[in-house]
Queue: 3 jobs
Job 1
Amino acid sequence: MIKLKYLVILTDGAADYPLEKLGGKTPFQVSRKPNINRLSQLGEVGLVRTVPPGMSPGSDVANLAVLGYDPRRYYTGRSPLEAISIGVDLAPSDVAFRCNLVTLSDASSLEEKTMVDYSAGEISTEEAKIIISDLAKSLNSSEISFYPGVSYRHLMVWHHAPSDCRLTPPHDISDRVIGSFLPQGECAPKLLALMKESQKILANHPVNQERKQKGLRPANSIWFWGEGRKPNIKRFDEKYGLKGSVISAVDLAKGLGISAGLRAINVPGATGNIHTNFKGKAEAVLKAFTEGDDFVYLHIEAPDEAGHQGDIETKIKAIERIDEVLGIILTELPKIAADFKVLLLPDHPTPLALKTHTADPVPYVIYWSNSVNGKHSTPEFDEVSAAGTGIFIEEGHRLMDRFIEGRPD
């Protein structure tokens, strides 16, 4: 019996709302994507709710659901997944925090500052590593440990931390005064003190001095969010009987995959934005299948980053580059596997008009290489077409069951 190969292409944040600047259409509707449309013309298209009601529409929750795990049961926070990705072993009493390098405006008090840029101008990993290393030298203690990540995304672990902590993602408050969004709860005094100390250290930091000279935004503060404790989820191979890998530029997706027992594949030049190594990701997928993987989870962050920046042109370009990745895979994968399935979907919308995530259902397409037609297919893949098929999966974690165990129409 020929064993199927399974590929998930997660187009992070690609779903959107109709925009007046696009003639009332979404980026999916206006982008040139012949390969994605090929899937929708032969496969099953529908809508899926990846974020359970009442839960925050983060990529952590949504990707957990897409991988087949009920977030209501397994979700323990975003940062523990990132900790796992970079090899930080958390104790049961540890709380991990995402530590963004951000750009705040000048103001006399912290409360009056504005969130200018949640990514400090998409600071490079090399620059950020120097900054986080210097912060660690000054701020690490028996309680606190800082760890470098990728670009603006880093990690702080608080040993024996309190559980009462209410934090706001910085990408949710772009261009807003931060006073009402600062840490609250039992953890607040410690986190606020660390933030204020970081601003003293970073004010005249050599990396920031050089960035200013180049006309770039300085990383003049840290910002904590996404706190959580170590997760415990069932291995993917035990759940579905498939050996697999995860390919992503971001620690969240890699950590989630590692937690599920998937192998994390690092692609040189993968950045998490529009400048990522798209071709390298396609080649990594094909190599993983050649080496014997049954399942590959390909996560592409670029549309989400563009959504947070409110950048219409880049979001459309990101979707079109993803289509090119799919084109490479569809050309080469039949040479490796006689039979394969592809699931393509966003994890959540990141509407350009809002610059943050929403919990709206997202379109998905399931394609099987032996399909010739489908009664739930659509000429093009987008939010409107998906809604028109009448298929709606209320519990997002059940989509993976449908993908792996289902039959084509």
Job 2
Amino acid sequence: MSDLKKLGAVFRILVLLALIGLSLEALSPARAQQGSAVLFRNVRIFNGKDSAISAPTNVLVRNNKIEKISTAAITADAEVINGGERVLMPGLIDAHWHAMLVRPTPVAAISGDVGYLNLLAAAEATATLMRGFTTIRDMGGPTFGLKRAIDDGLVAGPRIYPSGAIITITGGHGDFRQLSDLPRTIGGMLSRMEKIGGSMVADSPDEVRVRAREQLMQGATQVKLTAGGGVASPFSPLDVSTFTEPELRAAVEAAENWGTYVATHAYTSVAIRRSIAAGVKCIEHGHLMDEDTARLMAEKGIWLSTQPFLDAAAASALGPSEQDKMRQVVSGTDRVYALAKKYGIKTAFGTDVLFSQALAEQQGAMLASLTRWYSPAEALRMATSTNAELLSLSGLRNPYPGKLGVVEEGALADLLLVDGNPTDNIKLVENPAKNFLVIMKDGKIYKNLLVGDRKG
């Protein structure tokens, strides 16, 4: 082949690749590009903070932020979405999610093909966004690559605040080794779960410090340790306390040196109190705490990130002993919310879904179930502005600078247009496919069922 022919062939390939690229861009659900604007006309606003919704209002989004909110007409060169007095609200936030562990079975999560697991997590990330959850705080798992793919626009999904690998002790919650893997050789081979970044075993302050720093090096926005027993781990009774106070403090020091914080998985009062003494800022779960511990959390300003576990069926993918532990946790759900309300503990909403795509599809229903203890507006506030306040504890490690969880000028444009008023009928969030007419994240439209109502 002559040089001229070779150049011609190369040129044709480049043109073909360019056309393919344009086609893929045209097919992308995120239609709004940087520099573009979207005007929501005639909407009523739940701003994430106030219980009452606004009068009919107009909201201009430019690039990835809310530029202007006005009851007066807004004139702008923008794509117009006529809200028809439907409710515009902030995107939802799940403060306790495991993006890599939702769809696989427990066995697959540990021993499955990593490439397939990543693709599975990407599919779930898109489904999560389509349920209206525009941000998640990932509390354990190898999510750094998924986060990057979402941020780079390769995958549609929520913002991710990653913890990286769960840090645990030998036999603690998150240690998924088998008895045949013992004894552990200090400084020896890593287990499969450690190799893929799901959890890391650390049995001294120095080991904890190393593992915490490794997660921060990879981009963790907060560090997660398991201070007590858990449901899903086979060798971890609920009542046990795991890390010593010096071990917990080593993680806290490492996180604080990076300007962020430690959250601990803790159900019992002993695990919670030891965490607080070590400087931990947020307790995950807390279902088995006593009243004195709840009072201490309130006095110290410690966050409680808890979940409305009401059905032991959430552990149906696990074995009989794990299901029994789940029943113990469920028995404490009413009490943990009662104590949180009684003492005014700063409380975040999360779901902690594991190993069940079907349960993940109930993410909105779990939010709606908070009305067992809170008003609809209080529940929605928890899943928006309150959760965003917890995310801000990451300080300069925050990968998404700006205001989340609110509809106000200058805030990041993560928005839902709801067909109805969720502050009156929170059950609307249980059916996002029908009731979330528009889903916007970072100023980009990922769903719009009002295409026929748009006017230029």
Job 3
Amino acid sequence: MKTALVCGAGGFIGSHLVKRLKKEGYWVRGVDLKRTEFSPTEADDFVVGDLRDPVLVRQVIDRPFDEVYQLAADMGGAGFIFTGDNDADVMHNSATINLNVCDTAKDAGVKKIFYSSSACIYPERNQLDATTPVTAEESAYPAAPDSEYGWEKLFSERLYFAYARNYGLNVRVARFHNIFGPEGTWTGGREKAPAAICRKVAEAGAGDDVEIWGDGEQTRSFLYIDECLDGVRRLMESEFVGPVNIGSEEMVSINDLARLAMRVAGKDLELRHIDGPLGVRGRNSDNTLIREKLGWAPEQPLEDGIRRTYNWIKQQVEEAKQATVA
């Protein structure tokens, strides 16, 4: 039986990854500051602990795991990342985690380690036009991310590849593009656009409107969690080390994302545009390299994932209302 460690197993992607690995027959240890919020973890062993603590990291990476997945990070959506208020914590906390995990994995003889980077590493100058963003992997340099979150992610990519060169650590690196789905953060300020919009639509009644930050013409692509995990597992089983984009090429404006959520919900609501943190003007996944190296790329229509996510968030909204009444 293969062994795997998932760092960040209490979070959205990490909890889904644990389930995926268990289905594939792995023995899985998870570690996070918190347990999974929306369903019990399926990990064989779950450690509640702080990966900023090198002692804790040595305790959880206590063997030459077949695979380690480093997903843990201090992060959130635009409302958390782009205000500037959390920059120091984002950089310090995430970099400390990666320094600890990378070095301990080397010492423990871990056979293969995956690092989840982000599309936020791409230069702002290549994403000023909402219709033609540039996100080919080689376009990351000269570096100029639009946030400190992106700078930390880029630093950590280089950290893992330095350990690969100097110590033979067997690494894989992917740049995620806006992963979404059920059992993710949907309220509280750290939620990302699909969850935030689905919540706003679910909460809206007749005559209400849906708030959109900016003019809503900024563009993004969004990848459903199942296809994200397909890409991660294919990368881990390949000989390609990355970095590689894992994202959808179905680019939409935030206005159209809101209209899609309304269509799924069967609601006809107005959009109300307000000031708010926006990030780059346009971003989409360039999947040329992943097709070349892995012979695969995500293809699921955005609407399918939004429907599943909306239905789950609608249930959370209804349960929250019932709890308030009770």
